[in-house]
Design brief:
Elements (H helix, E strand, L loop, with lengths): L1 H21 L4 H12 L14 H21 L2 H6 L2 H26 L3 H10 L9 H4 L6 H29 L4 H30 L10 H19 L3 H15 L1 H28 L3 H5 L3 H22 L7 H9 L5 H13 L4 H28 L9 H7 L5
Keywords: Antiport, Cell membrane, Ion transport, Membrane, Transmembrane, Transmembrane helix, Transport
Protein name: Sodium/proton antiporter (CPA1 family)
GO molecular function, one term: antiporter activity
């Protein structure tokens, strides 16, 4: 039934995608709403629970694909060539966002410090999918689009070690477990670097060469091999995927270019499927279980944490106020946060259920708000449009 529902919603998303590109309609919201409506606690069409095997498996595959393609988007050469603004957002903005979110979780919701910093790490990454009209608009300044693209491409992987460490602290892990965790992290990075380098060196040797028809599959083969080795050796497969993507982008620009479009499509399909499943885990009863402090926390995480963090980060950066405001607002919480929340739920720590509820609420509000306002904000940068439609309506006394 899940495959049938996904296929139907995917076809509908394709048919309305042109309209969604021009309006506040969002295909991401479409999958989220479809999951919500068809979930077990709403209409019962989809029988899915957080502990259902398909939920964990799909989430892992999707996040691996997203991190692998994110890494391919930001090779070391790209980072060195234009690192100034993304470096501010990642070096200052990400940890400050984590800190402000953790403070809100501790003082407002009452989570212990390890759990508060854990939820801060989970909600610190951003997702460019829900701001596609902004990052894909040529009228938007190139430095702003580059900033949002690079930041969202790197921060999933940068936030992951924080999630791993704070999750271990929240679980009260002993020294032996922490040492084992360190080996998983190191092993994942090592596999992500060594496997792509070996594959690229083999292809460049005199003995081997990929035909034009098989060139796009080279990236697929490398990614699958990284994933399989990480699973067999119990290394961290997410860090392996992120490191693998960066290594391919750095050492194999040809392989990167051949894989780019195909990889983006695969990652997008898996991400949309995961959003459908995530929506099915949410219900009116689920949202009703969240206290008013939890609702306030979700809005603070969106309206306070990132704006404050980036306001500090961009002081003296040269970005004008309009660009800064757009960057502050478009820090949508997306797919990586979904999976990190599911990892916490599977961990069995005492506050796992409460953390998942708070993460889920923040993500749902973020998807609805950010994916519905990207077109409006993008129009502010369109020189061919003197004033956005909503601006004119306000001045004429109209209502939105």
């Amino acid at each position: 039934m899940l495959l049938l529902v996904f296929a139907g919603v995917l076809l509908l998303a394709v048919l309305v995608s042109a309209l969604a590109k021009r309006t506040i309609l969002s295909t991401a919201v479409l999958f989220l709403v479809a999951g919500f409506v068809l979930g077990e606690d709403t209409t019962g069409v989809l029988n899915l629970h957080p502990d259902s095997p398909i939920v964990g498996t799909l989430a892992e595959l999707a996040l691996f694909a997203v991190l692998f393609t994110d890494g391919m988007r930001v090779g070391w050469g790209d980072l060195r060539s234009a690192w100034k603004l993304p470096g501010r957002a990642l070096g200052w903005g990400l940890p400050l966002t984590l800190l402000v979110t953790a403070l809100a979780a501790h003082w407002l919701v009452g989570l212990p410090w390890p759990e508060a910093f854990l939820i801060g790490a989970i909600l610190s990454p951003t997702d460019p999918v829900f701001a596609s009209a902004l990052v894909g608009n040529d009228k938007v300044p190139g430095r702003l689009r580059h900033l949002l693209n690079v930041e969202s491409g790197v921060n999933d992987g940068l936030a992951l070690p924080f999630v791993i460490v704070f999750l271990a602290l929240a679980a009260g892990s002993d020294d032996l477990h922490l040492a084992h965790l360190g080996l998983e992290v190191v092993g994942g990075i090592a596999i992500g670097v060594m496997v792509p380098m070996a594959a690229i060196m083999l292809e460049r040797s005199r003995l081997f060469a990929a035909s034009s028809a098989y060139e796009p599959l080279n990236g697929v083969a490398i990614g699958l091999l990284v994933l399989a080795l990480a699973q067999v050796t119990h290394a961290n497969l997410f860090l392996a995927g992120f490191a693998g993507g960066i290594t391919v982008a750095t050492c194999g620009p040809g392989q990167r270019q051949a894989f780019a479009q195909f990889g983006e499509n695969v990652a997008e399909l898996l991400k949309l499927a995961a959003l459908l499943v995530f929506g099915a885990l949410i219900s009116a009863e689920f949202l009703d279980d969240i206290s008013w402090q939890g609702w306030v926390f979700a809005f603070l995480a969106l309206f306070l944490a990132r704006p404050v963090a980036l306001w500090v980060s961009f002081r003296g950066s040269g970005l004008d106020m309009r660009e800064q405001a757009a960057a502050m607002w478009f820090g949508p919480k997306g797919f990586a946060s979904v999976v990190y929340g599911l990892l916490v739920l599977e961990s069995g720590i005492a506050q796992a259920n409460e953390i998942f509820h708070l993460v889920a609420l923040t993500i749902v509000v973020s998807i609805v708000l950010h994916s519905s306002t990207d077109v409006v904000v993008a129009r502010e940068f369109d020189s061919e449009v003197e004033t956005p439609t909503w601006h004119g309506m306000l001045h004429r006394g109209g209502r939105t």
